[in-house]
Design a protein that fits this description.
205 residues; single chain; globular; alpha+beta; Alpha-Beta Plaits; eight-stranded antiparallel barrel
C-alpha cells in the first residue's frame, strides 16, 4: 500500500472554497477508478492549502488509474485557475499504522512533518513503533508515513482532535509519559505542523 499526498497552494480569497466545490462535483466521476482517502484545507500553518490523499496498491497501479481517470471528461475538476502551485509526495505507511479512509476520528487533524537525517528512517520507524502504544493511551493516531518519492526523508504523522483545548490537554498529558515522544530527536533536522479541516465530502472526518 502507498499513498499519494497532493498539496495545492491556492490564491488568497475564495479559491479554496471554489476548488473544494468543484472537486466535490467531480469526485463521483474520479471515484469510478479509485477511492479518495482524505481531503483537507489548512486552518493554521501554511494558509490557503488543500491536501488530498489517494491510496494505491503500488506505483504501477497509480500510474494506470491516473491515466484512466485523465481520459474522463469530468476529471480533473474545473476552476483550476486558483491554484498557485502543486506538489505530490508518495508516502509509505508505517507497519503499525491504521489505513486511511472511512472513519470519523475528530473535528480537525494536526499534520506534523519531521525531516530526519538521510539513512535514519528505518530506525525512526522502529522507535515510533515501540512508543506508539503509550501515546495512543491518550488519543488515536490517524496515520504515520515516510516519504518515498517527492520530498525525501520526511516522517508525516496525522492526529485527530475534537477541539484546540483537547489538543493542548492531550499533548501536555502525553509528554509527561516517560515513553513519549520517541527518542528520535537526535536524527531530526526540521519540524513543521499544520491544522487541517476535513471537507464535507472527505472520507476522513
Amino acid at each position: 500500500m502507498i499513498y499519494e499526498m497532493r498539496t495545492y497552494n491556492m490564491k488568497p480569497g475564495g479559491a479554496v472554497a471554489e476548488f473544494e466545490a468543484s472537486f466535490a462535483e467531480s469526485l463521483p466521476h474520479r471515484e469510478k477508478y479509485s477511492k479518495l482517502a482524505a481531503f483537507f484545507h489548512t486552518d493554521f500553518g501554511p494558509l490557503n492549502q488543500v491536501i488530498h490523499i489517494w491510496p494505491y496498491e503500488s506505483l504501477s497501479e497509480r500510474e494506470r488509474i491516473v491515466a484512466e481517470a485523465g481520459k474522463d471528461p469530468n476529471w480533473p475538476p474545473k476552476n483550476l485557475d486558483g491554484i498557485v502551485d502543486m506538489t505530490s509526495d508518495i508516502l509509505i505507511p508505517a507497519p503499525f499504522t491504521r489505513p486511511l479512509g472511512d472513519q470519523a476520528l475528530g473535528r480537525f487533524y494536526e499534520m506534523r512533518t519531521y525531516t530526519f537525517r538521510a539513512g535514519t528512517m528505518q530506525e525512526v520507524v522502529k522507535r515510533w513503533e515501540a512508543a506508539m502504544p503509550y501515546r495512543e493511551e491518550y488519543s488515536p493516531c490517524a496515520g504515520c508515513f515516510y516519504s518515498d518519492v517527492g520530498s525525501l526523508n520526511k516522517w508525516v504523522h496525522l492526529w485527530p482532535y475534537n477541539s484546540l483545548d483537547d489538543r493542548l490537554r492531550i499533548r501536555a498529558e502525553s509528554t509527561k509519559d516517560p515513553n513519549w515522544p520517541p527518542a528520535t530527536r537526535e536524527f531530526q533536522i526540521k519540524a513543521e505542523n499544520k491544522l487541517l479541516i476535513p471537507a464535507s465530502f472527505s472520507p476522513m472526518h
